[in-house]
Design brief:
single chain; 272 residues; alpha/beta; 9 strands; disordered N terminus
């Protein structure tokens, strides 16, 4: 899979012989992304702060019917050395690194007026600095490969609109969009760097966050496509961005939000 997309042929979404690291790949969106790369034939390593039993790791059957399971490394990506060790573990185990998906992130709700400095720093470290640390380590490997590599940063629509209740998170994700654009320039042409800004995605935690099934349905009704996104939706975009189909795409921020949100002023006007 050459950096210009011209090498080889056949199915551009066949990742057999390629290696992907998905941070935070044990659950939620990250798990869906890891499973998609496994199904496409890639060797996959996921990481997280909490240990995952082998039987609970992401798995998928590739196009030959072979069951593939992700490898796991426990780490705290907010530490630069630990972040670099994830990339080193992938190279040691599989011999190369073709794709890095910086998925790990998130934030609990917090009032910006009273959030502690420690809390805010932790959120920024996880959602902005950790992806930078992982990307730096991945770039060092990919620059030495003839085929280069692809980095996908999972961002959020919180970076593109107000993010009340998660202000530090939204600011960090906005920084990650900017970082994506800068790295795409600095690391070209061998390494492509793109962002995926996800909208509402139905994960294990979404039900509780939006007040159960009734709340989920009400929120989904505000989305033009009429539903939450799924981890599989986000995974398909990651496969595209990492594939030769996106060989001329770098520094982009692909926004996947089902059409966005119905403008509040129209709702107010209708109510009046």
């Amino acid at each position: 899979m050459a950096v210009d997309g011209t090498e080889g042929g056949g199915d551009p979404l066949d990742f057999q012989g390629r290696v992907a690291v998905v941070t935070g790949g044990g659950r939620g969106i990250g798990r869906g992304i890891a499973e998609a790369f496994l199904g496409a034939g890639a060797d996959v390593l996921v990481c997280g702060r909490s240990a995952v039993a082998d039987a609970d790791l992401p798995e998928g059957r590739d196009r030959t019917g072979t069951l593939r399971r992700a490898a796991f490394v426990g780490t705290d990506l907010r530490d630069a050395d630990q972040a670099a060790s994830v990339v080193a573990a992938a190279v040691e185990r599989f011999g190369r690194l073709d794709v890095l998906v910086n998925n790990a992130g998130g934030s609990p709700s917090a009032d910006a007026a009273t959030a502690s400095p420690r809390f805010s720093a932790s959120i920024v470290n996880l959602n902005l600095l950790a992806p930078l640390y992982c990307a730096q380590a991945a770039n060092a490997v990919m620059q030495e490969q003839g085929s280069g590599g692809s980095i996908v940063n999972i961002c959020s629509v919180s970076a593109l609109r107000p993010s009340p209740g998660t202000a530090a998170y939204g600011a960090a994700k906005a920084g990650l969009v900017s970082l994506t654009q800068s790295l795409a320039v600095e690391w070209a042409p061998r390494v492509r760097v793109n962002a995926l800004s996800a909208g509402l995605v139905a994960t294990e935690s979404a039900d509780g966050h939006y007040g159960g099934a009734e709340g989920m349905a009400a929120v989904a009704a505000t989305v033009p496509l009429g539903r939450f996104g799924t981890p599989a939706d986000m995974a398909g975009i990651c496969l595209f961005l990492a594939s030769p189909l996106a060989a001329y795409v770098s520094g982009a921020n692909l926004v996947a939000h089902g059409g966005g949100e119905w403008p509040a002023f129209l709702t107010a006007a209708d109510a009046g």
